[in-house]
Design a protein that fits this description.
By secondary structure, this protein is mainly alpha-helical. It is about 65% helix and about 5% strand. The strands form 2 sheets. Strands 2-1-4-3 form a 4-stranded mixed β-sheet. It has a two-stranded antiparallel ribbon with strand order 5-6. A hairpin with a 5-residue loop joins strand 5 and strand 6. The chain is flat and about 115 Å long. The protein starts with 12 loop residues before the first strand and ends with a helix.
Length: about 475
């Protein structure tokens, strides 16, 4: 088979069928753009080469069939006739971009009247994908909801499964029911009361002394502390007893926080008993004092009852690259401006007489804290300080924007997940997963796949040919 048999007897046109839309195109028109898919058909020498470019070929009718969207093909025809692409406002930019890429038409041919709006809309779409669109949030929430249901189904094979599941939902999902809301409010009050007593115990107005002049704790604070420890211990034991998977119980960060919040108290009791029985180990008493201060970690227990705190934790856990970038920028800036400050101030200021001493000044200045304990005195030093402060503002602001966008995504996803969990009804057993927009879930997966294929096609000519053969 040679290229000339693809044309009519006059050798002037070919017949194409795009999703039912039939058109007769002149070969001279197609040849103006030899890199496009239709123009490359004119160079095919065999049926196999033809089928690499189209989905089917009717040898009798000499017609090429393409399984593509016929509504978008008029834009391709207009390109062959005018040499320019035009984009209507109602078109989906993602679909249009994929379509012209399939036909081998470069975005460079988009006319100036449409180019600005097209690229702006495409940038907005990319920014939404980067920040996390509603579809991405729905997808992640759906995955976590499936995990939640997977845990809930484990109770069906356990003794007293239905009862244990109700207790598990009541303890692990604040707001799931009236009882869970009461437990949540009581737990928050106990945490706040425990933190308040720790703070008040450090104030001289509430300090007490024994007969030997040694400080002792106020009995009222001890009652609050013991009640709080009893409550936290009961919470942890109850959650552990009704957990669907005891082996992986402490892999959950909130359960680790519950353990850390009560561990210092029991370690302090053990250390005090050891010190009383062995006076030679009196230095362990200082360890007990440090452990008492670790009670401040109880404030993290509020994360179980606060969507914002859980979203913040997820943001920090998934923003290690941005945090590392921020620290890198600060390290470079501190190193640079500390040397600059040392160079211009080592003779005028005793506080900036060494480079390590300048590190503290540069760190305080770049983070815009500005204690004022160390300041440059010369004009050159003040100009250096001004540059350091301005650079610090830019260094801090740029990565913070990325972290904030991730926080917005995780907060939205967490709210959706909580609403879905609270709508679950397990009174009659597990029947089905609650309503989730599966269309958006599937569309997001397909869109991600198409975007990855698009990126692959831009990387190398060989991969571009592979992508075309897939289509």
């Amino acid at each position: 088979m040679t290229g000339h048999i693809l044309r009519e007897p006059g050798g002037t046109a070919i017949h194409i069928n795009v999703g039912g839309f039939k058109k007769r195109l002149h070969s001279d028109t197609l040849s103006r753009f030899p890199e496009t898919r239709l123009a490359r058909l004119l160079q095919c020498q065999s049926r196999e080469s033809i089928l690499e470019l189209c989905d089917d070929y009717d040898d009798t009718e000499k017609e090429f069939y393409f399984d593509r969207n016929p509504a978008l093909f008029p834009y391709v025809l207009n390109f062959y006739n005018t040499g320019r692409l035009h984009v209507m406002a109602e078109l989906c930019i993602f679909s249009f971009s994929q379509e012209i890429e399939y036909w081998g038409i470069n975005e460079f041919f988009i006319d100036s009247c449409c180019s600005g709006a097209y690229h702006c809309r495409k940038m907005d779409q990319d920014r939404e994908e980067w920040d996390g669109s509603d579809e991405g949030s729905t997808t992640s929430s759906f995955d976590e909801l499936l995990e939640f249901y997977n845990d809930a189904t484990k109770f069906d094979k356990q003794p007293l499964g239905s009862t244990r599941r109700r207790v598990w939902l009541m303890l692990d999902n604040p707001g799931y029911s009236g009882a869970s809301r009461i437990i949540s409010i009581l737990s928050i009050l106990v945490v706040l009361g425990s933190i308040a007593t720790m703070c008040m115990n450090s104030m001289s107005e509430f300090s007490l002394m024994d007969r030997e002049g040694r400080p002792v704790e106020d009995p009222r604070f001890e009652i609050v502390e013991h009640f709080g420890i009893a409550w936290f211990t009961l919470e942890l034991v109850a959650r552990f007893a009704v957990a669907p998977d005891l082996v992986h119980f402490f892999e959950h960060p909130l359960n680790v926080i519950d353990l850390v919040s009560i561990l210092p108290f029991y370690l302090t009791l053990v250390i005090n008993l050891v010190v009383e029985s062995s006076p030679a180990l009196a230095n362990l008493g200082r360890v007990a004092q440090v452990l008492r201060l670790m009670r401040i970690f109880r404030i993290l227990k509020l994360a179980r009852h606060s969507t914002g705190l859980r979203s913040l934790g997820a943001t920090l856990r998934n923003s290690y690259k941005e945090v590392g970038l921020l620290l890198l920028y600060l390290a470079v800036g501190v190193s640079f401006f500390s040397v600059m400050a040392y160079t211009v101030e080592n003779e005028d200021s005793e506080d900036l007489s060494t480079i390590p001493a300048c590190w503290w000044w540069a760190t305080v200045s770049m983070t815009t804290v500005g204690y004022g304990d160390v300041v440059p005195l010369s004009l050159a030093g003040k100009l250096t300080a001004s540059a350091c402060i301005l650079a610090g503002i830019l260094v801090v602001v740029l990565p913070i924007t990325l972290i904030f966008n991730k926080f917005s995504l995780f907060y939205k996803r967490q709210k959706q997940l909580e609403i879905a969990m609270r709508s679950c009804d397990f009174d009659e057993g597990i029947k089905e997963v609650p309503s989730v927009n599966l269309r958006n879930y599937y569309a997001h997966k397909v869109k991600s796949l198409m975007a990855s294929l698009s990126n692959m096609s831009r990387s190398s000519p060989s991969e571009h040919s592979l992508n075309e053969s897939i289509h």
